């Protein structure tokens, strides 16, 4: 039987590399059977020729409490697909663990991409993620993620530092779509994030859906040691100054103007809500002292507004200057907003003892009461006598005493007619009575023998009628 040598041809898709046994993460074997020209086995002792190809994987390198090792289902990504974080990725053994630095220190093969050298002269393949400085109390942080190709990001932070990424709020990105190159992201930080070392895991793959552990067919996993710094000590700030009486209503504190005592002042946030001080205690409203001064202290930096309860009988003066733009300490920062007297919201980063509000007491409008006193005798025409109307020819009486009385009948002031006319002026709004004094009807009084008219009287003196009788006898 003629023996024919057959060439062995193996075709595989992917990148091939010769790896040391330590990095043989997964072995794929392809074989072909050798036969004679009739299809019979040509050599029963050597009936297959095989090619073995090693598929490299990238693993994480966080401490052992996290899923890192191949043996405990650690996160791993098949390499050779040109999808990775940063500028390069190398193959790992699946046996690295530490403080998220073992991968860099290992310098394993193969390498995909071009790695830069770190400060220790090692190839830096953990270069895909940069997290901004983070402190206790921060609510968010900037994260920069660089990728070689489009992929979906899943990431976790051990905020409570219990050695697990499975806690509530610890997955910070869920299938976040990234594009090749630099991606600027914002990561929410929970209130329970503690000072100290928090380990992070970032995984990116084309398909996404990656969990804390398990395999992905492309992409990379990078673990990082994140230091959460203590909160920057908060320096208390104060705000206040003076509530004053702007007597001349010019919106400026003049030298002779005084403070307004007893005014109620409230500090609110920019949306008009109550605020707490640095100790977490509610900031209560204050009352201005005898000089109109007020102050709120032990405050955190932030946006605030000040509201003043308009004192009874006063109105806010002109002004409303924005506190943030106000370089003067003599003008008014208050304005009326939705019926409330308050400042606009302002930024408080240092003590500000220049926030003032002015009020004035409006001048009360004054009024007058008056007209005439006459003899309603008809001027010779008896048909017009005592008709309650001032008719032509009827005499006006001079030197008649009239009294202005309040609603209780008490005399406020008195006056005499001049040419038959009288006037009470400079009166505030209110109810009054005008009376012809009883002394006019006694002794040498000019009305001795006269009596009050009884006909044609106007029922309501407030109707403003002229040349008619408003009088009547007092009981």
From TrEMBL:
Signal sequence region: 1-24
Entry annotated with the keyword Calcium: no
Gene3D superfamilies recorded: Immunoglobulins
Broad class of the protein's primary localization: secreted
Entry GO terms, CC: extracellular region
Keyword Signal in annotation: yes
Domain (SD-repeat containing protein B) ranges: 238-359, 368-439
Name recorded for this polypeptide: Cna protein B-type domain-containing protein
Species name: Thiothrix caldifontis
